[in-house]
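Bench log. Compound arrived from synthesis this morning; before running ITC I wanted a structural hypothesis for how protoporphyrin IX containing FE sits in the protein. Inputs:
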Amino acid sequence: MASKSKDADKREPDFRPLEVWQAVESGEVSDLADIAAIYDEQRAGCPVSWTDPGHGEGYWTVLAHKDVTEVVRDPQRFSSAVPKYGDPLIPIEIDPPLHTQYRALLSRLINPSKMKVFEADIRDYAGGLLDEALAAPEPDLLSVTSTIPLRVFCLLLGTPDDEEWRRIKEMTEDLHNRRIPTFSTDPEHIAAREAASVPRVEYCKKRIAHRRAEPGDDLATDILAGQIDGRDVTDDEALRILSLLYLAGHRTTANSMAGIVVELARNPEIFQRLQAEPEKIPAAVEELLRVETVLHIMPRYCTQDTTLGGQQIRAGEQVYPAFGAANLDSTAIRDAATIDIDRKPNRHMAFGLGVHVCAGAPLARLQLRVFIEELLARLESMELCGTVTREKWPRFGPTQLPLKVRLKS
Ligand code: HEM
């Protein structure tokens, strides 16, 4: 293994992809095979690599599918209680056993059969937005993919008016435009994130007060009516749940949707196959999520001295399972750099794995399927006509998506 034994005071960073990742962001490196090769090389040399992000504390990046699985399946040893926005967000910054109760509440409220009720609206939103965008010679599909999940999210929360999703869009963009390094535990960055979260928190407080006074038929009302430990959910708990949902519940889906457009444009044989066999769309969604993993890492911290992937880790150190790398690990996933919509089983981790596996996955999957169906219903073909740029590591959403399309006659 290339990695040196780690001395707490003299750590040499041995995670090199951070340097080459800029080429991925600028679009210079965009081939799946090239991205997989970056990870393969690093994983072969040092599967659990000390990483200096250039700000705040360093962390261990975990690159192998088996080690990522080990981390996320052991919340006692690898805790998620790493608050990044002030008060811990529920349930993502809470460990079991308390996590289990919050999670049971959310899983009861967001599941495939409950989400089905949104299918017709999702289809209407997707259809309307696509018709408008596809009328332009060089359609701006990024505006479509960013708007559908926002509108659906507002519907889920019982605020379907245009004014509401635009307000949430503004709050999200404001937080993003401040460019606070993702997941950094530098106290300055945490304070900056907390300050940037004030409008979101205030907005959630108003939603909670409104729904306490006037219950509706929406997720905010259902959360407030929930029980934890045999007692009612408090306003503070509801605030920390809603605040997380506003952070996690639309942009991830928007980025995944845009990533799926990139892959369908790059792979006309998959596009055509899905036209001919629409029943393959759900399996294609899983496979496209695997290669378009929008959150490449998520934070944990180690609660005890331990060994992982042959590396000594000390209690209190941060450990980041890299879902993006695990999803391209050819030692665990056959032909990992090839998109295969017949892949079975598909052990991807785009939604994470273990107790914190994405609570919103049923809604995300539904939106992605319906979006692809509506896209395929309108297009004969599409191709990229320029460079696709990406968000900054560790996020992967497309930031530029130049497309040429041929509409169905
Ligand atoms: C394609 C879209 C999405 C992707 C790729 C995604 C990805 C993820 C990932 C990787 C995690 C695991 C975090 C960890 O292990 O630390 C997660 C957790 C979570 N996601 Fe998503 N997400 C998506 C959509 C959504 C939506 C639509 C919602 C809500 C409506 C949502 C709500 C959550 C929540 C509440 C958690 C925390 C779960 C827990 O801690 O138990 N996500 N998501």
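What the model suggests: The domain at 17-407 is CATH 1.10.630.10 (Cytochrome p450). Confidence is low (pLDDT under 50) at residues 1-6.
ITC booked for Thursday regardless.
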